[in-house]
Amino acid sequence: MRAPGETLHLLLATALQLIGCAAKAPQPQTKGTPPLGEVMQWMEVYNRSFCQPKEMLVPVSEEHPAEVEHLLAPSCVPLRRCAGCCADEGLQCVPTRMHMVVMEVMKTRYLHSHLGQLAFVEHSACECRPKTNSKVNPERPGRPKGKNSIGHKHKKKRPPERDSPHLFSCPPCSDKRKRQDPQTCQCRCRRRSQHCRDQGLELNEHSCRCEKLRR
């Protein structure tokens, strides 16, 4: 017959073993609920989401619209561009420093392929800056004012400075083959007419393609 103290020790040991098994047992999941993964800490979330250069895939046709006559491989390239969140909705993530990078792509035209080099712009540094309006409302003609304004000269307003690459006064061109003249706001072909003449062709100002000379 065992002593009462020995029996108490056996009961405590058995209880501890049962508690340990219950702690190790997997918790039942509710049906339809995905399993919880590892929680990402706040500092890691912030460091990965704030305004900074990030690698993204950019279509080559957007950077070089003049290459539409070729089939390019790959059709998109990895470039570091500014992206991320700013602390205020009135701010946007913009590049403050850029550099050029040259990449090789395969160009194919009429079953003839060759390697070519194309230059792309990459962003080296970014910053959150106030958003600027993409369109500037045209000035309305001045109305005659009261008697108090007679004899006073009106100062001419200076046009907005164009020192910022993100300030545009004209709406963008709808055709990617054309670019905008900042002085006249007219969309003109990116391809030069001399490029077509070198091939014995002429530039179509509407389609921005090289076509056969008209006789």
TrEMBL record:
Places the protein is found: Secreted
Region ranges (Disordered): 130-166
Start-end of Basic residues biased regions: 143-159
One example GO MF annotation: chemoattractant activity
Record's signal peptide: 1-23
Chief place of localization: secreted
Domain Platelet-derived growth factor (PDGF) family profile: 38-133
Keyword Cell membrane: no
Stated family: Belongs to the PDGF/VEGF growth factor family.
Gene3D superfamilies the record matches: Cystine-knot cytokines, Vascular endothelial growth factor, heparin-binding domain
Superkingdom of the source species: Eukaryota
Any GO BP: positive regulation of endothelial cell proliferation
Protein name per UniProt: Platelet-derived growth factor (PDGF) family profile domain-containing protein
